[in-house]
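Chapter summary example.
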Amino acid sequence: MSRGLDREVNDLRERSSSWNDRRAVGDHDDSRSGRTWLLRTRIRSLDRERIPLDRELPEHDARDFVRVHDEVYRLRQSEVDALQQVGRFRIVDENDLERFEYADDSTRMREDFRSLRAQGLIERHNIRTADNERLRIVTLTDRGREAAAEFSDPDSRQRYYSGFVKPSEAEHDAALYRMYQAEAAEIRQKGGAVRRVELDFELKREVYGQLGKAQGAAEDERRRVQHDVAARHGLRVVRGRIQIPDVRIEYETAQGSTARVSLELTTEHYRKGQIAAKAEAGFRLYSLGSNSSQGGSPVRDEREITVEIFSL
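The structure predicted for these 312 residues follows.
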């Protein structure tokens, strides 16, 4: 999502001709020739009911006493799983959690939520969207974040978060978990396994901190540092900026190698140039259903994109 933090330490002007697995259609030359790229990409519509579901809950999942620092909790595996999923994304739409984490078992989810709230591990919120619809979201408390991290594989380097930061962006941010589920389903279908999820602000904190070391340097040096930082984090420089996705998934392939996929959840507020840059950076683009018609129009900026819409 484009936020104020998207402005980098420097605003170098450089074009990139890397297109990842996107298809370039037609002639290619630089802008001085008068010809443009025609890029065909896709914005995937996030239909909750059409995302493949392969979650099965254990029939007999008893709670055990577990110690986290100086606190003792009673938790069962489905509750630990819920804590970790919510903690990965900071906020999650309850309807999505019921669908993907509880396999549409609303009774089990209510039981778990009742226990988790009583132990001070989660909080539930009702907010109003821009369309004045009610959105029910769940977040972790600080104690919930500590519990999620306690059961995490340290080799995964997964980070967990608590609290509710920006109500104005809650509808977008709560949908990131659904976008992740759509992509994770494809990874599992191909025999892969998700190892870690990184959010945009994690990447921004690292990238911008390293870019700041080049402040005051000559332009050529700033450009070199920018490309080095981008490469170090598996990102790309497009039109003078390091493009950072909303979510990046690190996973193990069926062959045992490590791979990454970058995801962007577009909204009606995205300008044409923003969509073009995200596509050029090789991100997989998604949209909530209400934005699909806008994303489907050809987008023209310095280069041209043809965007196709299909539902999962």
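To summarize the output: The first strand starts at residue 23 and ends at 25.
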